[in-house]
Input
Amino acid sequence: ARKAFHDCLVIPPGQTSPVLGDYLPVWINSATPVNWDSIDQNHFLIERLILNACGLNTLSLEGFQCWLNHPKLKLLLFFDLNSWDVDGRTTIAKALPGFLDRYRHCNSPVGHRAVVAYRSSAMNDVPRQLLEDSLQFQNCDLLPLSISQAQTYLRNIREFEKDVYEQAGITRPNRNVDEECRNLRNLLNRHGSNLAGNESLISTPLLMHFCSLLRPDEFAQVKTLSDLYDRVVQQHIERDTQGRIQAWLSQSNEKSCDI
Output
């Protein structure tokens, strides 16, 4: 989904326009506020989500629908369905095919398009079944990352971090990226990666993101996926706890000043 969003905006080397430059990308997730109780059984739900995502809440629904019907307008909607609860996922999955049908243009049978990112291991998952039954969505699974891709991902993250630290004038943590990449390869090999097929245990960017969060002294200590999860969760606990402590200290100082 993020690559498709990128392809709407960025011009590839040697090209004169983005690959998906004809589309206007709109990212929609649970951070987009919506009053579920005010919506009558999916009626114009997607339109309202787009309005909220674009900060156009004051625009009338009727005026927005006229804009959506413009023959030269093509939206590419991105939905992170897992960011909603079960009821929200089902409601959106019911509403989305109807939205796509409503705005098919006479001169462009495709009209607006949507990319739905969704992960579920449940049997007979309702949202997924609704999308597949609509015959408007193609089911695409992520291929496993190869070990070399996983190492390249980590190197690119570290290079990006280096640039950010330098531009901000902040001293960056002292990291041995080569050693981190070796530790990453060892972690994957330890869990039975099929080197003959060059497949990696890490099959989603989420786990690679977890690896990139490790502090400079932590990677060598990670021997199993359980170790990896432990350290990532511990970081989140420390961050959340520190935030609460700072908020409590701030409130205490304010009360002291009042006294």
